[in-house]
Hints:
By secondary structure, the protein is an alpha+beta fold. It has two domains: 24-85, ppGaNTase-T1 linker domain-like (Helicase, Ruva Protein, domain 3), CATH 1.10.8.460; 96-228, Trefoil (Acidic Fibroblast Growth Factor, subunit A) (Trefoil). The protein has helices spanning 24-38, 44-50, 65-73, 79-85; strands at residues 96-104, 110-113, 123-126, 135-138, 143-145, 156-159, 168-171, 183-184, 192-193, 199-204, 211-216, 223-228. The strands form five sheets. It has a four-stranded antiparallel β-sheet, with no helix packed on it. A two-stranded antiparallel sheet has the order 2-3. The protein has a two-stranded antiparallel sheet with strand order 6-7. Helix 1 packs antiparallel against helix 2 (44-50). It starts with 23 loop residues before the first helix and ends with a strand. Pathway: Protein modification; protein glycosylation. One of its GO terms (biological process) is protein O-linked glycosylation.
Amino acid sequence: MEVLPCSRVAHIARMKKPYHSNIAFHTRRNALRVAEVWMDEYKSNVYLAWNIPMENHGIDYGDISQRVALRKSLQCKSFQWYLDNVYPEMRRYNNTLFYGEIRNSKVSHLCMDQGMKENHTATLHPCHGWGPQLGRFTKEGQLFLGPLGSTGEDTRCVVDDQISSFPQLLNCDKVTNVKQKTWHFTQNESIINRATGRCLEVVPANVYFGHLLVLQPCSGQRWTIKNTMKQ
């Protein structure tokens, strides 16, 4: 296998698709089959990318015993070897604790959302579960928000810059104050910034969805992140 990260591929579509219009179920199924056979401890990255729980996900990916036996008979190297030697630029997400939509118990129909990227501010939006609402909380206490990137895009995390009343969504690698970009959080508890002690909270406001996402003294609001990463 040769990896060409800068390659460009063109696709000319037919006037009429020769397959079912909704192929998401089948692509998820195939993705999980590949993950379970070939990716070892990194299979969790596929569940994360698809925003699928690692258990009780309801997707029957079928019998993979023959594929596992084939891998063994071919004496294939581990996926760790592939990442170390073939594609070391690829981001790794094994430090994830929780992932998926981030909801506040006071307004559970709204989810934390990356909003317009140029605004650099995390916001609230009706929950839909797609990329802009893909949250990820790590062992280091960083809270990422937005679609995953294989090599560069996944560097935006929620930050308390100690100035604004709104949580900033910034390139995590460029935030030098570690405490500003790290948080205390466990499921169904507050999200508390380690630099300021301020909490991520929602407040009623005369805006389109009726609430704002703000940083303020903690009042005991509780948050949940949809999925727990199986360790």
